[in-house]
Write a structure and sequence with these properties.
Order of helices and strands of chain A: EHEHEEHEHEHHE
Strand order of the largest sheet of chain A: 1-2-3-4-5-7-6
CATH class of chain A: Alpha Beta
Low-confidence stretches of chain B: none
Largest sheet of chain A: 7 strands, mixed
Strand order of the largest sheet of chain B: 2-1-6-5-4-3
CATH superfamily of the largest domain in chain B: Histidine kinase-like ATPase, C-terminal domain
Order of helices and strands of chain B: HHHHEEHHHHEEEEHHEHEEHEEHHHEEE
Radius of gyration of chain A: 16 Å
Oligomer: heterodimer
CATH architecture of the largest domain in chain B: 2-Layer Sandwich
Distance between the termini of chain B: 64 Å
Number of strands of chain B: 14
CATH topology of the largest domain in chain B: Heat Shock Protein 90
Largest sheet of chain B: 6 strands, antiparallel
Helix content of chain A: 10-25%
CATH architecture of chain A: 3-Layer(aba) Sandwich
């Protein structure tokens, strides 16, 4: 933990809080959340923030999103509903907040919240072991639902070149 | 107006029509004849048939079945007189023949169209005639154009006596005097309809009144529903109104409300009485704990205390039963309902993960009670659960809210009657949960596997949930 009195909390974002997540994702491929098909989960640092100089995220600004944010988003994960399956992506922790277990917390929440469906993802190659801890297993790209596969059409099947690995998690509680 | 008056009017009307047709025929044919006798200019010969089409069209429209014979008759008279009286010419016979055929064709086409129109009107009248609800229709002038069999039975007024009548006479059977009805409100926005409450349901106006005149003077609660009759261009050509006797429904509803009130009062008295006696029992048990120190007796007192707690819980459930359905359903955030339920219970070492943040369902306001009873089952010591998870799952048939734990689960033999009202399961409150959900068409079932935990699925129909 970065400082005394900081209590991490994980919860699902409301639609009004999506802009705050978009702000965090700005450095992560410019990912944008869509309330109609996304569920976004976030780890917050709530309570009295006494030392967060090295762990910067978006501060609550003016507007309804700010009113709901009771702390600072330090890690995000998204579950997107495609017509043919659910895709996990947008798992992102700002550099300054890494190695504190925030991503593990947010992924645990996502996997529990969405455990009623099979989950698919393109995992960053180096994080395949991390996702395996949540029950994800590597699969051939052809086993991904077409709607999810579209995102990496540009890689023309060269997953190693794209440094990603298709993964799958069967529905069920952790 | 009685039946004889109507028959007289019809006969008079028929005579007038025949006289009009005959007059026009005489005028046009006679005009032709006169022109030829007096010597019409050569350029006009043979004389045109246009004037003669007027009586043919009128006759074919009014009497479609006789349209062609009348046309043939008129055309023949025209052809013969014109052929005889016109100066001879090379193509005279052909010209006259073509014009005569044209007259017959005009008569035939008008007769055909008029027949189709009559058939359409007849079909519409048949539909109205056999509607189970008392129904009448008026035209723009407020004259009755339809009065079906059901309204004849309801009011005792025969259609022969009312068709064609205006001046709000159709209101007399209901109010005892001519006055505007809902149909007039449709046509004229008539502010004097005098209904205590008129509501609009799409294009239909609906109102309910009590009239002392129907049911042989015993009075009846009747429900009016009226809407506009439109032509193909959307113009209002009249209005149709149906009247339903809802006396039985109103009386049944009133009786049920009375019974409900009495039952509520009675159960309230019983509940208070039981609670008072229970307080006395708790008092005795407290004294017993202080008075005895024999472990066997204390264990016995503890058992009695547990039984008393069970009775107290059942009193609370009966109070909740009294309240369900008393407030209208509403869109309820599920996460709030879960939190509200959790706040009333002690979880001890059992964790609760609820992941329903953006989900709202249309349900009875006592939705939190449903979760309370589901959580209570998981929290029962015999269940040995250490974790309760609440999630939701979007499916083609709706949204399933899933409440599951990692306890022992529910044996298959018990699943079937889990939500039934039975003495031994009443205390679990699952019947109450089932009833609260059923108010808005939500179902509940248990789909867990015995040995791995209980899993309750609350299935919300597609129109009953939204992710905000």
């Amino acid at each position: 933990m970065a400082a005394t009195g900081i209590r991490p909390e994980v919860r699902e974002l409301t639609s009004a809080e999506f802009p705050a997540a978009n702000e965090v994702w700005r450095d992560y491929h410019g990912t944008i959340g869509e309330p109609a098909r996304d569920r976004i989960f976030a780890t917050f640092l709530a309570g009295q923030i006494v030392s967060l100089a090295r762990c910067r995220g978006p501060r609550p600004g003016p507007g309804p999103a700010a009113a709901r944010l009771a702390g600072q988003i330090v890690s995000l994960a998204r579950c997107r509903r495609h017509p043919d399956g659910l895709e996990v992506d947008g798992v992102f922790t700002p550099d300054a907040c890494r190695n504190k277990g925030y991503a593990r917390m947010v992924m645990s929440a996502l996997v529990v919240a969405c455990h009623n469906d099979d989950l698919y993802m393109y995992a960053v190659e180096s994080l395949a072991g991390f996702y395996a801890g949540f029950g994800f297993i590597s699969i051939p790209e052809r086993d991904l639902p077409p709607g999810i596969r579209e995102r990496y059409t540009w890689a023309a099947g060269n997953m190693e070149g794209a440094e990603v690995r298709p993964m799958f998690r069967r529905a069920g509680l952790l | 107006m009685n039946v004889t008056d109507i028959q007289t009017a019809l006969v008079t009307d028929t005579r007038n029509r025949i006289a009009i047709i005959a007059g026009l025929a005489v005028l046009t044919l006679g005009g032709n004849l006169l022109a030829m006798v007096l010597g019409a200019p050569e350029s006009l010969l043979p004389l045109p048939t246009l004037p003669l089409t007027i009586p043919i069209i009128i006759a074919s429209y009014w009497y479609p079945r006789r349209g062609i014979p009348v046309s043939v008759c008129f055309a023949s008279v025209y052809a013969v007189t014109t052929y005889i009286l016109s100066p001879p010419g090379p193509l005279l016979a052909y010209t006259i023949l073509l014009r005569a055929i044209l007259l017959v064709l005009i008569g035939g086409v008008v007769a055909f169209l008029a027949t189709k129109l009559r058939e359409s009107e007849q079909q519409m009248n048949q539909i109205i005639e056999f509607l189970p609800d008392a129904t009448f229709a008026i035209d723009r002038e407020g004259k009755v154009i339809a009065w079906n069999r059901a309204i004849e039975e309801m009011t005792g007024v025969k259609k022969e006596a009312i068709l064609g009548r205006g001046g709000y006479e159709y209101a007399v059977p209901f109010y005892g005097e001519p006055r505007p009805l809902l149909a007039d409100l449709i046509l004229h926005g008539d502010p004097e309809t005098g209904y205590p409450s008129v509501r609009r349901d799409g294009d239909v106006l609906v109102a309910e009144i009590h009239t002392p005149l129907l049911r042989g003077g015993q009075g009846a609660h009747i429900k009016f529903a009226a809407t506009a009759l439109l032509d193909r261009s959307g113009e209002v050509t009249g209005a149709i109104e149906s009247i339903r006797d809802v006396s039985d429904e109103v009386m049944t509803e009133a009786a049920l409300q009375n019974a409900g009130r009495q039952l509520s009062t009675l159960t309230g008295i019983l509940r208070t009485d039981l609670a008072n006696r229970l307080a006395v029992l708790y008092g005795h048990l407290s004294v017993g704990v202080m008075k005895f120190d024999d472990p066997a007796v204390l264990s016995f007192i503890d058992d009695l205390n547990n039984a008393a707690n069970g009775i107290r819980r059942q009193i609370e459930i009966s109070r909740e039963f009294r309240d369900i359905g008393t407030s209208p359903p509403a869109w309820i955030p599920v996460q709030q309902a879960v939190r509200k339920a959790a706040a009333t219970l002690s979880f001890g070492n059992v964790s609760l993960d609820a992941w329903t943040e953006r989900l709202e369902i249309f349900a009875d306001p006592h939705l939190a009670t449903v979760f309370t009873h589901l959580f209570e089952n998981s929290l029962a010591p015999a269940t040995k659960a250490s974790r309760i998870v609440v999630t939701y799952h979007l499916r083609p048939e709706g949204c399933a809210i899933i409440v599951e734990d990692d306890g022992t689960g529910i044996p298959d033999a018990e699943k079937k009657g889990l939500f039934a009202q039975k003495a031994e399961s009443y205390g679990h409150g699952l019947f109450l949960a089932h009833e609260i959900l059923a108010i808005t068409g939500i179902s509940i079932r248990e789909t867990g596997t015995f040995g791995t935990g209980a899993r309750f699925e609350i299935l919300v129909p597609p129109e009953g949930y939204r992710v905000v």
